[in-house]
Amino acid sequence: MAKRKTAADELHKTIIEAILDKKGKDPISLDLRKLKDAPAEFFIIAHGDSTTQVRAIFDNVVEETTKAGF
Known about the structure:
This protein is α+β, with helices and mostly antiparallel strands.
């Protein structure tokens, strides 16, 4: 039986795509869903080559998640 997509899965996908759209480097995603009392379902880490790029990544994540309704 196929795993059902949750809102967290869709948000996760949207964030990763937004990071990659702005050439974010080495995105790493930690799935925290099996941890008791975890503060989030996922923790995503990425970096950029400059403060300007990091700001563009951030702005794109906010824009894309807002467009997706999160």
